[in-house]
Every structure is written in structure tokens, then in C-alpha cells.
Amino acid sequence: MNRRIFFFTFTLLVLTASLLGACLPTGKPSSPLATQPAPAVTPTQIALVDGLGRTVRMEAPAKRVVSLAPSNTEILFALGAGSQVVGRDDFSDYPTEAKKLPSVGGSMSKYDLEAIANLKPDLVLAAGINTPDQVKALENLGLTVYYLPNPSDFNGLFNNILAVARLVGRDQAGEELKASLETRVAKVQAQVARSQERPLVYYELDGSDPTKPWTAGPQSFIDLIIRTAGGRNVGADLSSAWAQISQEELVKADPDFILLGDGAYGVTPESVAKRPGWENLKAVKDGHVMLVDDNLFSRPTPRNVDALEMLAKWLHPDLIQ
Amino acid sequence: MKVQPYLVASALLVAALMLSVAVGSVYIPPGTLVRILVGERDLPVAFTTIVLELRLPRTALVALVGAALAGSGAAYQGLFRNPLADPYLIGVASGAGLGAVLALSVRWPYTLAGLMAVPLAAFIAALLTVVVVVSLARSGRALPAANLILAGVAVGAFATALTSFLMLRSQGDLRRALVWLLGGATLSGWLYFLAALPYVGLGLVTLVFSGHPLNVLQFGDEQAQQLGLPVARVRMVVIAAASLATAAAVAFSGVIGFLGLIVPHLIRLVWGGDYRRLVPLSILMGAAFLLAADVLARVVLAPQELPVGVVTALAGAPFFLWILRRSRKQEYW
User: Fold this and answer.
1) What is the pLDDT of residue A312?
2) Domains in chain A: how many in total?
3) Residues of B in contact with A7 (CB under 8 A)
4) What is the extent of the structural domain holding A196?
């Protein structure tokens, strides 16, 4: 019997190995170069490589777009393409006009595929919060899906904006938006470069458990915003982009500024000051605790630049006018 | 009341199947629905897509998963002579979760193989977990039920802890793992159903033919052995079959609790505990019950969709307790 079990295990292992072998990447790795055009395109045609490495082709700019993420919705509206959007996900709440559109789900990562099909979109704009399986499911319905990857820096964000602009036929608006955002980022960078001072910033994503709150780690966009605004992120050395930091670690680090991205869960500067052990933090004593709109920081949208300017001004009031 | 149980169960299943195809977040007029189903194609494309690419495959997969969970539940309860046994008892679900998260720590290319990597890894890890549990629980030639349950719970706890650890450590696609653990992939098309069908089919057919040995097993291991039943071998076969069906179901649908526990008990309460009838009836009713729960999950908060596991427990538990109270027998087990 033992031998039989061993044999069974062994067979399964071989099976696993061969499956893994069969599944190893064969094609070229997915290219995040969203705006890289694919060859052989007539002027009206659109062909763009998306965040999953798929080449998405369209005969003409999209007129009926379903957005699967609040960031996508914000980019679409920022480009003036709001009238081309016919559906959005549950979390798309900005700008307020977006809320009038029918929702296609998205809570608990469940989308209502029937509702999406029923809207007859000519483009479904997926995002980093979507899984490849979800993209495949939509593709199987005969829909055109473009997957917008989560950017890791401002250039990535600009590329996303340009890609969306191309897909909805608003290249001009895309270039203009990119240029204005680029100028604003560069201005902040130039201003904070005038000082060597780099205050320590703690960004709270979720403090429901104040003994080990969730914060933004390295390679998160929040980390990038903090650095670009001339600060140092307390979570910079954590193991992942979203991580829990222990309270002891936080007390030891003693941040100069605290940003509360979890105001929606009832956290306030007052409630933070009442947490045991927090009253002695430098930021709390100095009154440097601020509620922020987490959507400005966490969603990869043009509003990230608003967040950047606001934070830079708070950290370096003397440098920014 | 002398109603033919199979007739009732089949009628309920057919009703649930029809309901599942007819109900969705998008209203499709009954006439249009029938015309799509009989093969007319000059209808709005959105409607034919919704019915043929979304509702039918989903209905088929949900029925298959319900059948697998309830059928294996009945078999596990008989096998362990334990009314609390369910398809996840010996580590299938925790193993599947671990496999899925492991597969997700690799960035798969956007190909069919890459997309199938997660359910396949879940399936293989689930079966491996069961093999580990069985080999740990063996004592000589015997395979004592208590050992199996203890080994299953311990290995399951270990795998679950490892899954949590990996998820917290993962730099990569945490969301995909979470989506998977919350209730499987987003479904469209027939791929998942076809991938699960051979395993669930093989497992369930084996279980249907294990009714008599399971009946004999109820006398206790020693008695059964004296009656000429090769107890350890029966246990191996039933575990293999039930785990195969459960692993395939879990791999493609995520973890759906409670169903495998209550459906066999309901049937026991209504139609008695003869395993030759209990297993096939559980299969039919499991499919019907999960279809009904899935319909509820789709419509209660539309367009938001509830995880079907929430519905099976919320609707199933009170219903089960009501049946339990109503039953005249003091002790039915």
C-alpha cells in the first residue's frame, strides 16, 4: 500500500511538473509600453499593446466604453470622454457625473457579465485590480478589452493616459493633459530639491487594528508620491507594497507627519491621538496629523498630481508658494 | 407519503436548471429565451451572448459543483461515520487554496495555459494534500477514521497557515488569489465546465456504486471486516473518488461551505439513510440546491453578486434547522 501511495504521489508530481513546464512563458514577456504601436495599421485603425502583453485592435475609436475601475473612469472623464462612457464599476464615484452611469458590479471583485454584455460596449477598459481570468471571460464574450496596468511611476501614469486617449480618439486631449501634469510634477521636484530636509511620513491605509495598521510599502504609488514630495516613507523598508507595520516599529521610527487615508472608516486625528502609545509621537504632538482623501493617493489617476502638490506644500511650506 | 424520491429530486433539479437559465441581472423575455435556446440566431446579439456564453455554462458548472460537493459529503459522512464530516474535512479545500496561491506567485503569461495554471495547481495540490493525509493516517494495513480526521484537520490547518503567510509575503498578484479564494474565477464559456467534468464524473460514478460497501461500513470496521468487506481498500477508493470530485469542484469554483454537510442530512431526514439511495439523491439535490443558491446570489443585490457560499449558509442553515425540528424521529443518524 505504501508503495502504491508513493507511486500515486510520484505520478502527480510528474504531472505537476509537466504542466508547469507546459505553462512556462513561451511568447515575449508582457510589455508595459502601452503606447507602443503595433505594425501595419491604417490611419483610422487603432492597435495598442496592453498591460497583459495583448495587442488590442479597433477599427475606430471607442464610442461605448465600460470602465471596470474608478481610476479608468477618472482618466476617461479627465480626457473629456465622459459622454463615451456607458457603464462603470461600483467604486467609480469621481467625477460625480460618473455616478449617474449604470454600474456593472465590481464589489468583492465580482462583475456582472450579463450587465456588461447588455450595454453592448465597443471597449471594456480593465485595470490592475482586474485579473487575467476576468479579461479572458470578457474576451470570450466577443468584447474588446484593454487592460491598463498599475503604473509604478509618473511616466507609467502618463502612458496610461495616452493609451486611453488613443482608444477613445482623443489624442490631442491626452497630449495636453500629459504635458500639464508633467509640468506640475517637474515644478514640485524642482521646488523640493532646494532643501535637504526629508521629513518622515507615515501613510495609514487602514488602522482598524491600531496595533498593526496597514501602510504603503516600497514600490507603491503612495511611496513614490511621498518621495517626490520631498519626504521619506516610514514603510519604505517593508516587504510588500501593501503591508502591516507593527506599532512598536512605528513608535521607534517616530514619524514627523501622519497622513490618514482611512477617514472613511471613522479614523480622525483625534482618535489617532487617543490610541495608547501614540500620544508621544512627534507628529501627534506637533499636530501634524491630517485626514486625506485616499482616492487621490491610491488610484492611479491625474489626481495623483493634486495629492503630490498638496503633500509637498504640507511637508515644505516654506519652499512651495 | 409514498412519493418516488428520484422523481422528486429530478423534478427539483429540472426546476432549478430552468430557473438558473431564466433568471439573471438582465431581463430576457421568456419568448426570446426559448427562441435562443431552440437555436434561433436572428435575435439581439447581447441576448444570445448572455444566454449561450454566460448563463448556460454557468448553470452547468454550478450544477456540477453542487453535485460533487453533496455527493462527496454523503460519502465522507458514511465513510467516517461522522455526521459532521464534509468534503473539506481531510484537507481538500486548504490544499486547493495553497496550490492556487502558489501558482499565483508566478506571473503567468496571458495564454490559455497561463489562465488554467491556477485551477490546475489548486486541483493537484488538493489531491496531494489528501495523499499526504491518508499516508499519515495509515496504521499498518488499517486506515482508522479517527486518524484520518485528526490528520486531515492538522494538515489542513498547516496548509491554511502557509497560504496566509504566502499571501502576506506576496509581492505579486494578491488580488487574483483573493478573488479565487472568495469564490473562483469569473466565469464565461464552457472551458471550466469541460475541464472539471471528467474528474467530477469519474468520482461521482464511483461513489454511486459504493452505496452498498458504505452501508456495510456503518456496522463498524471490525464487523464490516468480518462480513467480508475489505475496509481499508473501500476507504481508499471512496476517499480517492470523493476527493477527486471535490478537488475538481473547488479548483473551478472556489470554496463553498455547508452544502456538502446539509444536503445529505436533509435527504437522510426525509428519505432515510440507505447509502445506495443517499449518494445519488445527494448528487441530484446538491445540484438543485446550489443552483437555487446561485440564482439568489445573482439577484439579491444585483448588479452586485454575493459569493454563493454566503447564500448557501444564510439560506441553508435555517432551512436545515427547520427540517431538523420538524422531523419526528428523536435521533435520525
Assistant:
1) 96
2) 2
3) none
4) 192-315
